Amino acid sequence: MLFFTQCFGAVLDLIHLRFQHYKAKRVFSAAGQLVCVVNPTHSLKYAPTLCAAAQTSTEQGILPPCHHHEAVHDPQLVPCMCPLFSCPWEGHLEVVVSHLRQTHHINILQGAEIVFLATDMHLPAPTDWIIMHSCLGHQFLLVLRKQEKYEGHPQFFATMMLIGTPTQADNFTYRLELNRNQRRLKWEATPRSVLECVDSVISDGDCLVLNTSLAQLFSDNGSLAIGIAITTSKVHNSEAEM
Amino acid sequence: MLFFTQCFGAVLDLIHLRFQHYKAKRVFSAAGQLVCVVNPTHSLKYAPTLCAAAQTSTEQGILPPCHHHEAVHDPQLVPCMCPLFSCPWEGHLEVVVSHLRQTHHINILQGAEIVFLATDMHLPAPTDWIIMHSCLGHQFLLVLRKQEKYEGHPQFFATMMLIGTPTQADNFTYRLELNRNQRRLKWEATPRSVLECVDSVISDGDCLVLNTSLAQLFSDNGSLAIGIAITTSKVHNSEAEM
């Protein structure tokens, strides 16, 4: 009997997953887009001390690279970028991807355009949704975070980071797109490097920011579909002049 | 001597204005776009009681039409939409435009695509920047507001409203676009009718929302250029299905 109950549960889960995929595909109807269902994890590592120095200076409007562990002397050493755990790991850029996959079981997706379907948006802050995205010969980390910057008013912050150096990151542009309920919101920017700090990017608000009511308007049954595209950046003449 | 000083001041102002136009045109380089420099006005009518009922119900996630003055029984009667003044005027839709032009000296611009250049973004909240936009046979009202939803944390809210009925508004889509510093933010939505309430749209956050640091990143020398485009809306298949 228990066996049948479990089987039935598994079938229901599969149907639910299939249905979520279908919905996300319907929203972003471009052919060949990969839909990734991303489950939330309640953040244990909230407002980490790692980036305290960076956060203080960014509040004054400057965007310095993040100062990591005081003990880190090699600037190419990255502390664990996964904001989900207070993970003591640190290592070189080359092994960040395998650490995130193996230790934190973060999925990695292939393809220039994918749909990130974050489930259970109603969960209380702090909560994170994370995937890695392999594209154009590099790996990127997409972080969606629900956080209460102002007490009692949770907001959603989404940003993309290159698992590479700031110089490499400058070669790319990422786009995050929400599209539902006759509203469309697009954010385009150069990804930051994971050598900078995801926490300072988010506390800065230099990313896609959604308040709860907008997030509700863009959500479907508690899930938020974010279309992601990465391109190699072309320097716009108008911007280059500035 | 005073005459020469004043003349010199006027010439400096003209040069400054010309320079701002030039900068805005450089950001939005599409040919034929009209640039409108919009000066701020410190809002005297802040958190008006007009919309208190609507705000309470929208906090619960519903978006009702705004309940205007208790004394208004004709639903087509609009109280003065200009958020700058606690203006006791109310009248029918047909005379809203002439009231805003004549009494509040709000500019009206022609053209499908214009650039709204809001100056002096550093001024303290509450502050408004307003223009009217005549396009596709209708008049629209663009409101940019700096407001402290959370004390000590001013945010910018931008929305477009049709000076017409909600049914007429459903036929259009407006787009607001910011583009600077290798970042681009686009908001597309159906305009709301001025029969609804600009205050409730903004308190809802159902509009383009910018925190101060993002507004700084998109600003140039204290001025924020917002590209505006209005089109007749096409019902997207994917959205129609939902």
TrEMBL record, chains A, B:
Entry GO terms, CC: cytoplasm
Pathway of action: Protein modification; protein ubiquitination
Gene3D superfamilies: Apoptosis, Tumor Necrosis Factor Receptor Associated Protein 2, Chain A, Classic Zinc Finger
Domain notes: The SBD domain (substrate-binding domain) mediates the interaction with substrate proteins. It is related to the TRAF family.
Underlying gene: Siah3
Recorded catalytic activity of this chain's protein: S-ubiquitinyl-[E2 ubiquitin-conjugating enzyme]-L-cysteine + [acceptor protein]-L-lysine = [E2 ubiquitin-conjugating enzyme]-L-cysteine + N(6)-ubiquitinyl-[acceptor protein]-L-lysine
Record keyword Glycosyltransferase present: no
Gene Ontology biological process terms, A to Z: proteasome-mediated ubiquitin-dependent protein catabolic process; protein ubiquitination
Boundaries of every Seven-in-absentia protein TRAF-like domain copy: 134-228
Pfam families the record matches: Sina_TRAF (PF03145), Sina_ZnF (PF21361)
Keywords linked to the UniProt accession: Metal-binding, Ubl conjugation pathway, Zinc, Zinc-finger
Record protein name field: E3 ubiquitin-protein ligase
Family membership: Belongs to the SINA (Seven in absentia) family.
Enzyme Commission code: 2.3.2.27
Annotated function: E3 ubiquitin-protein ligase that mediates ubiquitination and subsequent proteasomal degradation of target proteins. E3 ubiquitin ligases accept ubiquitin from an E2 ubiquitin-conjugating enzyme in the form of a thioester and then directly transfers the ubiquitin to targeted substrates.
